[in-house]
Fold each of these.
Amino acid sequence: MKKVKLTTKTLLTLALLAAANPVTRAQTMDEMWDSSVSGKENPNLKWFKEAKFGMFIHWGLYAKLAGEWKGKRYYGSGEWIMSQARIPVAEYKQAAQTFNPVKFNADEWAQLAKDAGIKYMVITAKHHEGFSMFDSKVSDFDIVDATPYKQDPMKALSAATRKRGVQFGFYYSQFQDWYEPNGGKNSWDFDESKKDYQKYYQEKAIPQLKELLSNYGPLGIVWFDTPGGMTKEQTQGFVNELRVLQPKSLFSSRVGQGLGDYRDFGDSEVPATPIKGAWESIYTHNDSWGYIKHDMNFKTPTEIIRLLANVASKGGNLMLNVGPDGEGNIPEYSVKFLRETGKWLDKNGESIYSSTYGLIPAQPWGVSTSKPGKQYLHVLHRPVNGKLLVPDFKGKLSKVYALADGKNLVWKKTGNDIWIDLPAIDADAANTVFVMEFSGKVPDYNLNVPVTVSNQYPENMVEATFAKLKGAAKIQSLTYSHYYGDWKHTICVTDLKNKSDEADFSIRVTEPGVYKIALEYSCSPESAKQEGSLTVNDQEFLFRTLRTSDFDKKAPLPFIKHTIATTTFTKAGVYQIRIHPLQDGLELFRLKSVSLDPVL
Ligand code: H79
């Protein structure tokens, strides 16, 4: 899939940078993307960059099947059930005969988006199953011709959404189409070697996209997915042919060949560091994109609010998916939890909408976003003593206040450190926002700032992203899944194979104290029981690796938090942590983080 390639390419480049430069770290990934995306200066991106929060909707015949086929339940991406269960077209199409979503109410859906603080909506016009959720003259396998419902829900939804000032767009699976003999990826009905993808593009995908771009008013986005079967020139021709119909509509990067207007990360992926330009992270509310009746694993309002802040703190948009059922109802918890998110955005939206990435890296207290002259502190964890550190802040600070009530806070500046006296915070709050107002030009986020370690927080995590690498060590994003296609991504230091391969971390301990040091890692059976060395604070600590499991992208990647040492920092200050194998040979482990948990 497109996203995996982009990530791998980016990280490969980082690895090459690391190889050329013996001590380096994961620097920003942004320039690469900026130069490879066509829409860098595109004025049509303005609304998108301001929007920050989108709603994705996966709705199709799979919603009617609800994750079950012939009495057997399927888990993971419900919109993949036809592929997962290898359902023949002749049987699958029968589901349309009973698909009658009479509970669908366009105004309710659009109002939910509005109430949730959502600024754009993208709905599946056609997913890989090949079924059109709109009135198509190109195919009879559509909601008007093939179902008892006989209406076009996209007409009403596009109008209701736009009426509320929310941008509207379509997801369209341009290459995969399991219903068509020449569409991508149905190998259980059709012989892949006999497929004529160009015929499919000419006879279905392009004509249908023209219908979508002609019959539903101005589209904010056309969201393509899983490109295939076209050269770069053919993709350019495809884009050009569609572009003339709606020159302002944004095409997602999964149109392929670097020809999108903005970048999408992988499914359920947030980049580790700030990224410039226009981009989006996509997540689903539970485990599946399309409705599955036994999938009740919904992210809580707190999780959604924190995810949104985290994505915004890197400079991107979050598009969160909901999967309405076969009757046309959005799941109860999606409705409730989105409305809760909307209540938070009502009060705190200033810190999200039209913002960009924060000017400092993530801290033990949370993340930050910024606007010209303003830095928003998203406090997820309050320091016990109420003294909040904003390190490496180079602007000329004029005031600090709570976003909720505008009350000024006492602060002081020591060098480039800002120390803020926080008021009491509701312990249950998902995210309490404080604002720093400043003048002067502030340089971009600096990844070289030592990671804050403080006894004011129960845990201090130093993430792999912040490693400086030596030798053959690399930083990689490992992609794997729990259920079918529900991707997870974890950034790790890998390839610590020899004594000279090292992961080094610069930390700043803000108060003297005693800390337990733990390593969070994944370790294959082959790598287990090897010795490693961690040096910090003029002491070397030895440890022996514990087995977790092999890496398998279709299974969970378990991590163990292995506590290895106790140490006392007698003075506040900057310290280096150095980690390497004690012998030459096998990879030591895949290191996710080093944590320092205060004891005294
Ligand atoms: O629409 C949602 C997904 O259905 C779609 N993108 C999001 C927005 C998507 N299409 N493809 N993929 C995601 C990647 C899927 C990879 C898979 Fe597999 C290959 C799924 C099934 C085969 C690997 C093997 C994962 C599960 C089995």
Amino acid sequence: MLVKRGAVLVLSGPSGAGKSSLVNEIINDIGDCYFSISTTTRKMREGEKEGVDYHFVTEEEFKKGIENDEFLEYAVVHGNYYGTSLLPVKEALSQGKLVIFDIDVQGNVSVNNRLGDITTSVFITPPSLSELKRRLAKRGTDSPEVIEKRIENAKKEIQRVSEYDFLIINDDLKNAASQLRLIAKTARMKHPTEEINEFIQKWENA
Ligand code: ADP
Ligand code: 5GP
């Protein structure tokens, strides 16, 4: 059972949509928060750091984590395992923090199943598929084959926008960041079901 006092903000969207860039833009303006660092079996990209961008593990280590029930959620994305460790999330929530996840559409479903009452979800996308291709090429961190896989996945992911509370079209970065800042601040105002039930009882008896 999770001790919930904080709230959750899920960010999804194609790889290259600008999720990391947007989080960097707002992270100092939205109060006490914890950015969940996922575990993955994907190879480290140039410029990435262990424990900062991801915890990079082997498939064997990841599967051990699944067996030991260490993940709040996990999924296979673009042929690699990605998962959210449960322990740090539990701790951050019990401290009343806003927990931010950068996870895919499958992860959003899992998080909503477990923490739906305190979760706000946002789908982030560039204005078009061609712009996504341009940004992935410009970022220069992935091979043409990997980019192709990500583009194919993006076409599927965009079909599921309606599963999210909000859609942000990341055309102008500053403008998109303003929208995300507002959503992040509001996300904190979601109350866990138990807290609402307690409030109703008190309200009736006061
Ligand atoms: P994600 O975290 O969703 O994979 P990134 O934040 O790494 O995406 O952004 C992908 C690339 O697009 C980066 O090179 C980033 O600098 C660039 N980028 C992000 N937002 C914008 C924007 N609004 N306009 C132009 N380029 C952008
Ligand atoms: P990338 O390899 O570009 O860092 O991430 C690829 C995709 O995996 C992105 O859509 C990202 O949101 C997703 N992802 C990253 N971490 C997790 C996670 O812990 N769980 C799930 N379900 N998806 C994740």
